[in-house]
Structures are given as C-alpha cells and as structure tokens.
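ESCALATION

Customer reports they have been waiting on this structure for their group meeting. Please prioritize. Original submission:
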Amino acid sequence: MPENMLDVFNGDAFKIDSLTDAIMRLPYVPGRVGELGIFETEGVPTTHVDIEEINGTLRLLPTKRRGEPANRETRDRRTLRTLKTLHIPDEDVVTADDVQNRRAFGSASAFDTVTSLVNTKLGRMKQNHMVTLEWLQLNALKGIVLDSDGSTVLYNLYTEFGITPPTIDFFLNVTTTIIRKQCLAVKRMMEDALGAWTYNHVHAFCGKDFFDALIDHPDVRKAYDAAQASDEYRNDPRKAFVFGEIVWEEYRGKVGNLQFVADDECRFFPVGAPGIFKTYFAPADYIETANTIGLPMYAKQAPDPSGLNCFVLLHTQQNPLPICTTPGALIRGIYTGSSSSSSSSSSSE
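Update from on-call: job pushed to the front of the queue and completed.
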C-alpha cells in the first residue's frame, strides 16, 4: 500500500473520536422497539449497574381503643442487585486490495475514496449493532435476555426479581371466548405489578399466527374491520389497531432463522411508564475511554500489527444493558390450540 495512503489513516478523521462520531451520525437502522421509544437510555462510567429495589407495601390499619399503642410502621425492605453490561465487539478490515485500483497513484482524492470505503464498512457494522440492540431490548420486553443464538440466557429478569413469568391464555380457537375479558385480565395483572406507576397504554407485539387468530375471532373482527376502513390500513393490514384498550400489532423481526417474536404467542408491556425500561451504556474497553460516560456505540481503527501494512483494522463495539425494572408487568399471551399453549401454564378470567 502506498505510503501516502497510510498517512490517510493517521489523520484526524481516523482517530477514535472522529470514527465514533461518524458511526453515530450514520442513518439509524429502523427497529420497532426503537421506533416506539420505550427504552430510556443512559451512559454510565462503569461496566455494571446497581439497581436498588425498595419493597414498599400498602396495608390496612386496624382500629385501636383510645390509649392503646398506635400501629407501628414497618421499614421498607431494600434489595440491591448488580447487573453487568454486555460487551458486543465487531471488526472489519480495509485491505490493500480494497483500495487497489480505486484511484490513480498520487491522486489527491485518496482521502475521499478511503473515507467513503470506511463509512460504507462502518454503516454495515452499525446495522449489525442496531439489529442486535433491537433483539436485546425486545428480549428485555419478554423478561429474559438471550444471546444472538436465541438460547443462551444472559439475564433472566424474572429470576433476578424472584417473579413467576405471568401468562394468559386467550382461547382464540374458541369462538365463544370474550376477548375483552381477557384484555381486562392483562390490564389488571399489569397494574398489580406496576403498583403506583402510571402508564399510557398496554401494547402487544404479536407473532403472525397469534395475530391471524386474533383478527379472525368473532369478538374482534368488527373492531378490526373498522380499523381497516381507513386508508392508512389498506396499505398494510398488519398495522396496529386498538381493541379492549390494548394496542395490537404484528411484530415483524427476523434475522436468519432467529424469530424475534414466536409465531404463536403475544407479548404485552406497558408504554409511557417512566423508569420501567432502561438501556444503560458502559464505556468501551479502550484506555482513553476508561471511567468516562458510556456512549451507545464506539469505533476505532488500528494498523496491521505485523508491520507489513497489509490492512487497517476497524473495530466497533457496544456495551449495553437493556432491562425492565418491573418484569411482573411483562405478560405473555398464548392461545388454546397453539403449540405454546400445550407446554405453558395459563391463567384467565
């Protein structure tokens, strides 16, 4: 690789702050969880987050005779949990062959050409990071955060908080089921878990089979048909609609064979409850970023360690921790006749 080409990578545009800024400014890769803006984000200077739970409870006070000792208030029980942030690095290289024949030797356009190539690679790496973050945040909405293989448990929020995962069977294959009653059961269960926390509405991400069974049910069909009457819905019949004071939509998300929401289930979560969903970002494991406030993404480049200058390494990373602080408000919906219902416990009203 020509010497002046290497000088390009030693310029200010290829330092960690410039590369990190570049990858942060690249177009955002859409994800439904990100679009809803459910998760509050916060940078932290550590690789772990301490979450304190104060288990305050309400109780009825018994009457007392005048002169008797008063009722005594009990102290709130505090539980401190330490959760480590996740480390997600990615790497690519700019090789001599990548640059070969892209410019004439000695051309002044070397900087623009290499910058364009680096930005293309950073854009692809950012897409991988964003779809990974969407996967992790969606799993946090389910209460169990899984790794990219779809089976390795990174965090079981139900276990962390000592909660049994709540499940409700909607009996969608039974034509006489009153679906509004099941919707009310979801809201009651969620509100019991939220306690004094207020929220805007209940949202439901449905797998395709659950969604099809829902909109075909006689109790739902009229409301769904009314929603379809608008021009907005004619373009895509899978768009969100409201029934039983719940916003329902089919979640479309898949990478390879990894399905983000199982076809035959539905996931309910509250929207507009402040502090319930958080994504923390820890600093990168670079010397210069140690103990600084974490950013959502980092990018850095390093020369060929062999000294032959055959390539320049591009390194990106995220260090997120997406969590739900009230996993009892995350409810799984199934329906009789689906494969999920035969292997899951259920409750209904």
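Sent to customer with the following note: Confidence is low (pLDDT under 50) at residues 344-349.
Escalation resolved.
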